[in-house]
Amino acid sequence: MAVNKLGYVHARVTDLEEAVNHYSNTLGQKVVAQEDGRVYLKAWDEFDHHSVVLDEGGVGLVKLGFKVETNDDLAEYENRIARFGATSERMSKGENLAVGDGLRVVLPSEHVVELYTEIDYLGTETGVLNPDPWYRDARGAAVHRLDHALIGAEDPTLIERFFAECLDFRPSERLITDPADPDLIATWMFCGQKAHDLAVIKGENGKLHHWAYWMEDWNEILRAGDIFSMDDVSIDIGPTRHGITRGKTIYFFDPSGNRNEVFSGGYITGADFPTITWTADQLGKGIVYISREVNDRFTTVFT
Ligand code: FE
Question: Distance between CA 258 and CA 149 in Å, rounded?
Answer without folding.
Answer: 12
